[in-house]
Amino acid sequence: xxxxxxxxxxxxxxxxxxxxxxxxxxxxxxxxxxxxxxxxxxxxxxxxxxxxxxxxxxxxxxxxxxxxxxxxxxxxxxxxxxxxxxxxxxxxxxxxxxxxxxxxxxxxxxxxxxxxxxxxxxxxxxxxxxxxxxxxxxxxxxxxxxxxxxxxxxxxxxxxxxxxxxxxxxxxxxxxxxxxxxxxxxxxxxxxxxxxxxxxxxxxxxxxxxxxxxxxxxxxxxxxxxxxxxxxxxxxxxxxxxxxxxxxxxxxxxxxxxxxxxxxxxxxxxxxxxxxxxxxxxxxxxxxxxxxxxxxxxxxxxxxxxxxxxxxxxxxxxxxxxxxxxxxxxxxxxxxxxxxxxxxxxxxxxxxxxxxxxxxxxxxxxxxxxxxxxxxxxxxxxxxxxxxxxxxxxxxxxxxxxxxxxxxxxxxxxxxxxxxxxxxxxxxxxxxxxxxxxxxxxxxxxxxxxxxxxxxxxxxxxx
Length: 463
What we know:
Elements: H1 13-22, H2 31-50, H3 55-62, E1 67-71, E2 78-79, H4 81-93, H5 108-123, H6 127-145, H7 151-154, H8 159-176, H9 180-191, H10 207-227, H11 243-246, H12 284-295, E3 303-310, H13 315-318, H14 322-326, H15 331-334, H16 338-348, H17 364-370, E4 373-377, E5 389-395, E6 400-405, H18 418-431, H19 436-448
Parallel strand pairs: 3-4
Antiparallel strand pairs: 1-2, 3-5, 5-6
Helix pairs in contact: 1-9, 2-4, 2-18, 2-19, 3-4, 4-5, 4-10, 5-6, 5-8, 5-10, 6-8, 8-9, 8-10, 9-10, 12-16, 16-17, 18-19
């Protein structure tokens, strides 16, 4: 059929996935996957609260003119489904502290959970429907991440943004109880709503923050359009002009079978990672290295220069232009700078929300250190299959100190304990200005949400 993928006369990929998702029941979901969904929900809600007073959330709020019965956490008023999904998704991803998937960096929680909660609150869906929606939508996003690893980035698109619309459409279809044909249409429609370029990397502007929220509201709209009878192309994934043609590159051919292979037996969503640091995914192992060196007694005053060994595929996002990465012009730009991450790791021994502020990025001692941090491409680096970090400090006396982090902490090779995820949730709610009583109430709601008869309790967390 031409230049991309041949489409069989049988079921298209969207039809196969939609058929599985439409039949998914809570009892089909393994305990590990259910636990991951609950951890994702807890992590997500804390992040939304943490950003509730941030200017980028206020800017999105100023652009909304529809009110309704859906909750945007920490906002007094209710919103329509799309507005609530947009606000919550933008807030959740705003500090780049949300869950991620190794392979091609993908942030399922920020795109899927806001869409599911908004649709469920509006429709009166049960907690079990919410669980199934989260799992189905996040599973699709994770599978899309491994169809053509790095292809979306190479083509100039943000994978979470474009795949997020597809995942959110699948998730909301499950919450609404759409049949397989309607869910297929929803996926086809979402393919024309998917968007999000990565030019934010140039100057650390805000558009990446918007991407998961935009994907979430796109999924809400696509599923409701499909329920109303709107038709979408069933070959949205593998067609000649389908998703992986539009958002890909010929140098990375897609393996479309990854979307449907072993559905219901292999759960890629179980492998999502939770971040210990409030910055870009591939920066995190280097921060671990820096903190390890600091804990071993390395003093910044001893350091002449620092060399980081990196994967070639990370350079254009985390290292170049080097002048910007060494002296980030915004706190958001600092989140995608390995020099900055290494510097705060050495100086502060942490990299939470307080390390990425206007005041901190202008600290003279920190900037003196970032100016001495460089990189070298390591041909043996496993990226994108594995996220590692190697930091080599050359000392003023001629000695060297080396630290290596062999994988992403918080990922499938070294999971964050539930207690650490909960501690992060509490800290984030505190950063957002909530007191302990309200924070614990939200945590309790999250821990019991999948057993709830409906989502009426969410309205208690407005304001």
